[in-house]
């Protein structure tokens, strides 16, 4: 769950999560991808 605060993709992901709970799954998937990088 270590996100780079300055990463635009992270900010968009967080905003989308608050606006639409359905985005939470996408955020989880993206988080896993970011964690591997």
Describe this structure in words.
The protein is mainly α. It has 2 helices and no strands. It has helices at 8-19, 24-36. The longest helix is centred in the C-terminal third of the chain and has 13 residues, at 24-36. 3% of the residues are buried.
Summarize the structure.
With 37 residues, this protein is an all-alpha fold.
Present the secondary structure layout:
Layout: H1 8-19, H2 24-36
| Low-confidence spans | none
Question: Structural class from helices and strands?
Answer: mainly alpha
Helix content: 55-70%
For the CA atoms, what is the radius of gyration?
9 Å
Question: What's the domain count?
Answer: 1
- In total, how many beta strands? 0
Please give the count of helices: 2
Strand content: under 5%
Major sheet description: none
List the helices and strands in order: HH
Integer average pLDDT: 64
User: Roughly how many Å apart are the termini?
Assistant: 13 Å
- Tell me, what's the shape? flat
Question: What brief labels describe this structure?
Answer:
flat; mainly alpha
């Amino acid at each position: 769950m270590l996100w780079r605060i300055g990463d635009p993709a992270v900010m968009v992901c967080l905003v989308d999560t608050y606006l639409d709970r359905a985005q939470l799954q996408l955020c989880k998937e993206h988080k896993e991808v970011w964690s591997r990088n």
